[in-house]
Amino acid sequence: MFQRLLSAITYWAPVACECTFIPTLAFPFAKLLQNNQLNAFEVVACVLLNWCQNWFDFIPNPPLSILSLIENVLAYHDRELFQVMVCIHLDIGVVLS
Fold first, then answer.
1. Angle at the Cα of 55 from the Cα atoms of 49 and 60, rounded to 5 degrees
2. By C-alpha distance, which of 17, 21, 39 is closest to 29?
3. Segment 5-45, tens digit of pLDDT
4. How many Å apart are CA 93 and CA 95, to the nearest integer?
5. Digit-coded pLDDT (tens) for 55-95
6. Where are the alpha helices (H) located in 1-97, listed in sequence order?
């Protein structure tokens, strides 16, 4: 069932073939909605359309707009960690990948 869900997602959005995070994103919904494959697909498609729409702008590179947003949130909420990352020249894209 999970393989069919991933197949449907990649058929619907071919760019999903390039993304290694799609199985991890889809698995909880496939597990939760294992008795209804259509609902599982619709939920994953809805999440991708509404919450991940800018993630695919720079495929196969990381989404720079999202990474800069995460970097700003980190700088605001954990200034000390952010300063350490800046001092050792650690890029947020490396940390999240």
1. 130
2. 39
3. 999 999 998 988 888 889 999 999 999 998 999 999 999 99
4. 5
5. 887 777 777 778 888 888 888 998 898 888 888 877 766 66
6. 2-12, 22-32, 37-51, 64-77, 79-87, 92-96
Between the two ends of the chain, the Cα-to-Cα distance in Å is 27
Contact by Cβ (8 Å): 63, 54: yes
- What CA–CA distance (Å, rounded) separates 73 from 88? 19
Dist. CA 52–CA 57, nearest whole Å = 10
* CA atoms within 13 A of residue 64's CA, in its CB half-sphere: 3
Phi, psi of 29 (to 5 degrees): -70, -35
Identify whether the C-beta of residue 1 lies closer than 8 Å to the C-beta of residue 34: yes
Whole-model pTM: value is: 0.69
